[in-house]
Amino acid sequence: MPRIVTYNVHRCVGVDRRLDLDRVAAVIDECQPDVVCLQELDVGRARTGGVDQAHEIARRLEMSFHFHAAMKVEEELYGDAILTCRPERLVRAGALPTVRGVPGLEPRGALWVAIDFDGVEVNVINTHLGLVPREQRLQAASLVGREWLGHADCRNPVIVVGDFNATSLTRPYQRLASKLADAQRAPAVPRTVPTFPSAFPVLRIDHCFVSPEVRIIGVRAPFSPLARMASDHLPLVIDFELQPAASSLSASAA
Length: 254
What we know:
This protein has a single domain, classed as 4-Layer Sandwich (Deoxyribonuclease I, Chain A), CATH 3.60.10. It is about 20% helix and about 35% strand. It has helices at about 20-30, 55-60, 135-145, 170-175, 225-230, 245-254, and strands spanning about 5-10, 35-45, 65-75, 75-85, 90-95, 110-115, 120-130, 160-165, 180, 205-210, 215-220, 235-240. A hairpin with a 2-residue loop joins strand 6 and strand 7. It is α+β, with helices and mostly antiparallel strands. The chain is globular. The chain contains six helices and twelve strands. The two termini are about 30 Å apart.
């Protein structure tokens, strides 16, 4: 059964304020995922020892990876990555819109990789939205627009995951949910799973949205002592199966 994990790793600095990349990799490894979508990775940044965190986590997990730098400060990078043990190809990496004139906003982006699941290519998009509601609305609109989900190459099946910094009551969430199904609303999921803050999770801001061909089998957030310490978010783990779209089934029956 395929498994995807979305995980904001907080630049591998845990709630104990200790930088520990091995700890983050161990949390991911315990999940045994096919695909890992990470947010808040440092690459070559002085504050985290100049390490390429995307490369090092992928190496430890024996996965290939693609990294997108949402923010660049000279040679220092900060952004998101998609890792997988399956055949893959990079489709797109790019910036999301922001709000001008608001101090302190970090640039945000998205990363799109097509991943082969035993002959079925799944379009996986990983993102990390901003903190300001107006900014989030612009970014959600961009994701459903012609550069991402509305692009001709973004054919189903599709999975969109990430840290959206938005609960299910917000307009950015609802914009995504109008295009794709929230994995945690699937019949196989008895209750929704909060992931933030990791020590005592009460907020559901890490999400997974899927097209109809992706049947959700289960959703969980590991709550081990290691997972609760490694980052300020828990990883969100999604098990799924791939099935024909309803329209394809109807055509076959006809």
